């Protein structure tokens, strides 16, 4: 079955897609930007760049980070970050539901390997 990816382009030139949303979900789970990046096979630098880009695209930060020290560093999603994930996943579910029959039709005419 084909997959559907949703990318949202904002007026401020910011973008949000499945990779950034997955990074936010991993940050929420791991409690750390670097650990989230590692769990996605992404470099520390790239994870931080994406978080910075995400935060710049919204009026309020979606991720807040605390630098390391005696108690260690970490990162958490703000309420807005959690809200963004909920909205994005809802959009994704509705889009998949609305396009399911079309995706099946595209699969039927694609060059993908056929099962015997």
From TrEMBL:
<dbReference type="Pfam" id="PF00126">
    <property type="entry name" value="HTH_1"/>
</dbReference>
<feature type="domain" description="HTH lysR-type">
    <location>
        <begin position="22"/>
        <end position="82"/>
    </location>
</feature>
<protein>
    <submittedName>
        <fullName>Molybdate transport system regulatory protein</fullName>
    </submittedName>
</protein>
<dbReference type="InterPro" id="IPR036390">
    <property type="entry name" value="WH_DNA-bd_sf"/>
</dbReference>
<dbReference type="InterPro" id="IPR000847">
    <property type="entry name" value="LysR_HTH_N"/>
</dbReference>
<dbReference type="InterPro" id="IPR036388">
    <property type="entry name" value="WH-like_DNA-bd_sf"/>
</dbReference>
<dbReference type="GO" id="GO:0003700">
    <property type="term" value="F:DNA-binding transcription factor activity"/>
</dbReference>
<dbReference type="InterPro" id="IPR051815">
    <property type="entry name" value="Molybdate_resp_trans_reg"/>
</dbReference>
């Amino acid at each position: 079955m084909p997959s559907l990816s949703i990318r949202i382009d904002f007026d401020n030139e910011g973008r949000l897609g499945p990779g950034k949303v997955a990074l936010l979900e991993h940050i929420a789970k791991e409690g750390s930007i670097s650990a989230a990046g590692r769990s996605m096979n992404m470099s520390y630098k790239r994870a931080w760049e994406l978080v910075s880009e995400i935060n710049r695209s919204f009026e309020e930060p979606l991720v807040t980070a605390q630098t390391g020290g005696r108690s260690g560093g970490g990162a958490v999603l703000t309420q807005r970050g959690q809200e963004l994930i909920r909205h994005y996943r809802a959009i994704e579910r509705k889009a998949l539901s609305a396009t399911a029959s079309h995706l099946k039709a595209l699969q039927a005419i694609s060059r993908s390997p056929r099962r015997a």
